[in-house]
Design a protein that fits this description.
Layout (H helix, E strand, L loop, with lengths): L5 E5 L4 H14 L3 E8 L2 E9 L15 E2 L3 H15 L26 H5 L14 H4 L2 H10 L17 H13 L3 H10 L22 E2 L13 H7 L6 H4 L2 H6 L7 E2 L1 H12 L3 E2 L2 E2 L3 H7 L4 E4 L6 E4 L4 E2 H4 L9 E4 L5 E5 L4 E7 L1 E2 L8 H13 L1
Parallel strand pairs: 5-15
Antiparallel strand pairs: 1-3, 2-3, 2-14, 4-6, 7-8, 9-10, 11-12, 12-13, 13-14
Helix pairs in contact: 1-14, 2-12, 5-6
């Protein structure tokens, strides 16, 4: 056994999962991380360990938070589904019905479902943004609302890596008068004690882990990007350095700035995999979740450049093939290695959050693959 400090608990039947978690530190260079697994609404694995900083001085605690990048999008997808279930948002209606300025540039017919399934052709701003500009969410939302789509809407998906955050906030503010993060906090986070934040209070800063990047070129190097990737990943600032700032965490864009841990992520996906309830309270209606997890488009994504099956904000396993063996699974993972998903067939909710960001390898991240393989071998 290693001398890595691992804390928490794991059901004996899932000892292989605990070993896989530890192995991520031994074989994959993990610095600090948390992992959580629910089955049938019961928490059966809840582990954390390592360090919350690159210097390996501050221990990763039970309540440590970390920026989980695009794993945040799964939480935004839940908010979209909940709002639809409340009758305040119709996925089939044009975005411009709620946000008239969005109709500019020939986008009057772009539906809410098309926007959140990355078909709107707004994968990035026409011109590069500075960090200060991007942190002004309303400014970015207004810029994107005035743009013309970069491809015919509804014909392809092109991952709106960062842009979907300001767009989501812009839409929510026009419907409920608050950002996605504030909506989540008021509707789910605070009342149901789910420790996930899109807009972190200053009082919680002391709990946040430092992100550490492996130093490898992003996705093999910018020089290999196509035009859509440049729009999505160069025209908007994204770096672990920016994400380690108070300004980023306070802004809380729902595309990439969620601060959470494995337990909070798994808690949400456990509800979505079972009765859609946390502590007896329904977080989304059955019909709304069915709509959110229905295939909107299956294709080779223009930005990601691999096959994707998109629901309304969720990545669907029928295209990803990484969240276990069942096509019914859905979720989202984030730049560097975090992930969360629900498997309604196995009735499990899973979350993983870490601070060591590894660039993409051929095939699934070995940390993800090792944990998911161990989960299904233990069921």
């Amino acid at each position: 056994m290693s001398d890595i400090r691992i804390e928490g608990h794991s059901d004996k039947a899932f000892a292989a999962v605990a070993r896989a978690f530890e192995q991520n530190f031994i074989d994959e260079g993990e610095i600090g991380a948390s992992f959580c697994l629910f089955r049938d609404g019961q928490k059966i694995v809840d582990l954390w360990g390592g360090h919350a900083d690159g210097a390996r001085v501050r221990p990763w605690e039970s309540d440590t938070l970390v920026n989980v990048w695009s794993t945040t999008k799964g939480v935004m997808a839940l908010c979209v589904a909940r709002l639809a279930g409340q009758g305040k948002l119709d996925l089939a209606r044009p975005v411009a019905d709620y946000w008239p300025e969005f109709a500019a540039g020939g986008k009057e017919g772009v539906t809410v479902a098309q926007l959140f399934s990355h078909q709107a052709g707004l994968c990035g701003p026409d011109n590069p943004l500075s960090e200060a500009e991007f942190l002004d969410t309303d400014h970015v939302a207004d810029l994107l609302a005035r743009q013309t789509p970069h491809w015919p809407v509804g014909t392809r998906s092109g991952y709106h890596a960062l842009s979907i955050g300001p767009l989501g906030d812009g839409l929510f503010k026009r419907i409920v008068g608050k950002s996605v993060g504030d909506y989540f906090r008021d509707e789910i986070g605070t009342p149901l004690n789910v420790d996930f934040h899109m807009g972190l209070p200053a009082s919680e800063e002391h709990r946040v882990a430092e992100l550490v990047h492996d130093g490898q070129p992003v996705s093999g190097g910018v020089e290999h990007y196509n035009r859509y990737q440049r729009l999505a990943q160069v025209h908007t600032p994204q770096s672990h350095i920016l994400a380690n700032t108070r300004a980023w965490r306070a802004q809380g864009t729902p595309s990439a700035a969620g601060q959470g841990n494995a337990r909070s992520i798994a808690t949400l996906y456990s509800a979505l995999a079972t009765d859609r309830r946390i502590a007896g309270t329904e977080i989304v209606s059955e019909a709304a979740l069915a709509d959110a997890t229905r295939v909107q488009i299956e294709n080779e994504d223009l930005v990601l450049r691999f096959p994707m099956s998109w629901g309304v904000g969720f990545g669907l396993n029928s295209g990803l093939k990484v969240y276990g063996p069942h096509d019914e699974s859905f979720g989202h993972h984030g730049w560097g290695g975090s992930f969360g998903f629900a498997d309604p067939v196995a009735r499990i909710g899973v979350g993983y959050a870490m601070n060591y960001m590894r660039e993409a390898t051929e095939g699934p991240d070995p940390r993800l693959a090792g944990l998911i393989g161990a989960i299904y071998a233990s069921l």
